[in-house]
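Hi C.,

You asked whether I'd gotten around to modeling the 245-residue construct. I have! Everything is below, sequence then structure, no commentary in between.
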Amino acid sequence: MVSPESSITASLSAAPPYVRVKQHLKDGLAQGRWAPGELMPSEAELVARFEVSRMTVNRALRELQAEGLVQRTQGVGTFAAPLHRVSSTLTIRDLHEEIESRGHRHEAQVHLLRAEKAPPPLAAQLGIAAGAEVFHSLIVHRENGVALQCEDRYVNPACAPAYLAQDLARTTPTHYLFEVTALWRAQYSIEASRPTGQEAALLGIAPDEPCLVVTRRTFSRDAVITIARLVHPGARYLLEGSFEP
């Protein structure tokens, strides 16, 4: 029986040479091997290490540049991209902008904004010590006066120390966190579920009304930034997207 690790290694070995070079550099960036703005291995070094042509190395670097992960300067070299460039390759829409794009009015009512001690399960999700301080906000977002989303969010204070000082009725947590943190990656899950009693009351819906529940966790290169539970009444929210080849 072949182990998963062996399967992955075998798959990578069989990949085109430029893919092996690209994945090596991409893994290094994800692990923080090169700090933002730091000079990365030269084309000559990569040619020697992987025993491939300069054209192969150049293709790997071009693709990484197109993805916003590196910056290249003619005659100087390749540099790890600043984190704000990396974050721009991820698409997480701010609900305020989403509502206004439809020509509608966005309102936010802040029901909770405080520091709390993180219980062990939450601490594990945020990558902090159990009992450590965490920031907690609970906000209901409305579109033209109708409750559209209940946002229950925990924020790592190390990533956004001034979070509690923000007027979250005027600027959304998503917008603020985009401004002050360097988003590297995100994880999310989407499920159909009933709201909790508190969520149903805040949204003004029946306790058994089906909802679309999105749980999202975002990361910088070296820490978890935030984890949020976003609950939308199923009859009021449509999840949309598009794809172009």
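If it helps when you're writing up: The radius of gyration is 22 Å.

Thanks,
B.
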